[in-house]
Amino acid sequence: MARVRTGVLISGRGSNLQALIAATRAPDHPAEIALVLSNRPEAKGLDHATEAGIASQVVDQGAYADPDRSAARAAFDASLTGALEAAGIELVCLAGFMRVLTGDFVAHWRDRLINIHPSLLPAFPGLDSHARVLAAGGKLHGCTVHFVREEVDNGPIIGQAAVPVLAGDTPETLAARVLAVEHRLYPACLRLVAEGGAEVVDERVELPANQDGDASLMQPPA
Ligand code: GRF
């Protein structure tokens, strides 16, 4: 079985990367992580790639400090695409990649670029979602894996996992509860996309009949 060559873009800790690496080690997983790219040389997640024997590269955003910011962003994103294509990457996962990508990059990878966001989108896009859910008195929180569109934290939803907000939660305790389900949801969604089971129709993901309403994406299996 030819597995889908997948690139993962990170900026930091890389715990979702670790979950993706662990899941794709299973011989029946339809994706393989073939390249890890970081925009920051100090990203801890790079160590996970090295430990797993996976190729990694830094495309250092510090090297792209152009006075014309839009030219710098275009050049940076073109370098990302160059590195991904040189490695034969077919599908790209954003996993804590803390940089807004250009419209050109997003268009180039349309429906082959997915992201995980720590909220139940379309609620709470953007930063500090855990603190904002607490401030709003939300009772349910979670994470979303979606195809990337130019508008940040927007795009057809592939899967979501929900967790309760508990009395006494802090942004940290809530983040930890969400992160545990992120690590289950992201590999499950990558599997779905790599199998061709997450087709975008009219900007919605139509899940195959046997997946529609499947509780496994609400509480994805470990
Ligand atoms: C995760 O919470 C993810 O949802 C968000 O950034 C965080 C990355 O964490 N996009 P890690 O680097 O995967 O540990």
Give the strand content: 15-25%
Number of helices: 6
Number of strands: 9
The largest β sheet comes out as: 7 strands, mixed
Classification by helices and strands:
alpha/beta
Radius of gyration: 17 Å
Round the mean pLDDT to the nearest integer and report it.
93
Order of helices and strands: EHEHEHEHEHEEHEE
Major β-sheet strand ordering: 3-2-1-4-5-6-7
Cα separation of the termini: 24 Å
Helix proportion range: 25-40%
Q: Which term fits the overall shape?
A: globular
Low-confidence stretches: none
Bound molecule kinds, no repeats: 5-O-phosphono-beta-D-ribofuranosylamine
Describe this structure in words.
This protein has 222 residues and is of the alpha/beta class. The protein is built from 6 helices and 9 strands. It has a 7-stranded mixed β-sheet, with helices on both faces. Strands 8-9 form a two-stranded antiparallel ribbon. A hairpin with a 2-residue loop joins β8 and β9 (204-206). α1 (15-24) packs parallel to α6 (171-194). The radius of gyration is 17 Å and the shape is globular. The two termini are 24 Å apart. It binds 5-O-phosphono-beta-D-ribofuranosylamine (GRF).
Short overview:
This protein has 222 residues and is of the alpha/beta class.
Task: From the structure above, extract its key features.
222 residues; alpha/beta; 7-stranded mixed β-sheet; two-stranded antiparallel ribbon; 6 helices; 33% helix; binds 5-O-phosphono-beta-D-ribofuranosylamine
